[in-house]
Amino acid sequence: MSKKYALVTGASSGIGLEISKCLARRGYSLVLVARREKKLRNISQKIINDYNVNANYIVIDLEDPKSPQAIYDYCQNKGYFISLLVNNAGYALPTPFHKTIMDAEEKFLRVLGIAVVALTKLFINDMISAKKGNIMMISSVAAFAPPSSIQILYGPIKTFINRFSEGLNLSYNKTGITSTAVCPGYTVTNFHAASGVQREMDLVPSFMKKKAIRIAEVAVNATLNGKKICVPTKTYKLIVFLLKVLPHFLFPIFSKSLAPGRYEK
Q1: Rounded distance, CA 189 to CA 14, Å?
Q2: What are the sequence ranges of the domains in the chain?
Q3: Reduced to 3 states, what is the DSSP secondary structure of residue 30?
Q4: What's the pLDDT at 229?
Q5: Most CB within 10 Å of its CB: which of 8, 42, 105, 214?
């Protein structure tokens, strides 16, 4: 079995699951991280059977401040060198900002931000020693968009992830380590239903909804090639370009048809 190991957070569904399978097809053994044991057990066994790689899993919640260290210690105890770290786990809060309790906000920021920093800090030291390593950050097109009137912390934390990834490249490219910020747009997963915005997702034009397997393939290729920013699909490359060059006051004009709810007062 393969000696190349990748660790994927949020590996039990959606983009994380497809990234895991994509890496297994490329010969990576896996450490899968998520909260649902039954799903992880079934997924890991299927990956072992389908791709003849090792696939272990850790049932853990990244809301727990101790979880990054527990994940790292597990890999150390197993003797796994994680040469590819995929920071994918994430969700969005279903309630308006003024109705969301602070504890929920802190847990959200921990999963999408602090845990990403902590896991990267832990695993990057081994990558520095080995003089090689790839880091993938699942960000979002929302990182480039103007402020939204729904899930108002989601865009800012993804902007932070992009800047964090840029900083890692600036500091560690010379040691053989690359970081890739992957910025997908609307992707067909259970993310929107779980985040309480399935209605808005249902109203998005079909040409803007992309399949998770397509996003995963592009993301893995970009990461293994050391690309710094990856915006999957031509549709979203064009949208990001427009977001960068057009005045932000124009976006609410188009939002009702392209991004329902995002800029409504």
Answers
A1: 5
A2: 5-258
A3: strand
A4: 97
A5: 8
Supply angle C-alpha 182, 74, 154, rounded to 5.
Answer: 30
Topology adopted by domain 5-258: Rossmann fold (3.40.50)
Tell me, rounded to whole angstroms, the distance of Cα 44 from its chain centroid: 19
pLDDT over threshold 80, residue 202: no
| Amino acid in position 3 | K
The DSSP-derived string for 137-199 is: EE--GGGTSPP-SSSTTHHHHHHHHHHHHHHHHHHHGGGTEEEEEE---SEESSHHHHTT-HH
* Alpha-helical runs (H) found in 36-153: 37-51, 67-78, 102-109, 115-130
Sign of CA dihedral 2, 122, 111, 136: negative
Q: How far apart, in Å, are the Cα atoms of 38 and each of 4, 45, 88, 191?
A: 25, 11, 20, 19
Strands 55-59 and 133-138 turn out to be: unpaired
In this prediction, residue 265 has a pLDDT band, given cuts at 50, 70 and 90, of: very low
What are the C-alpha distances in Å from 74 to residues 51, 78, 179? 23, 6, 23
Which pair of tokens denotes residue 16?
């994380």
pTM: 0.89
**What letter represents residue 176's amino acid?**
G
Determine contact, residues 41/15, Cβ cutoff 8 Å. no
d(CA 204, CA 201): 5
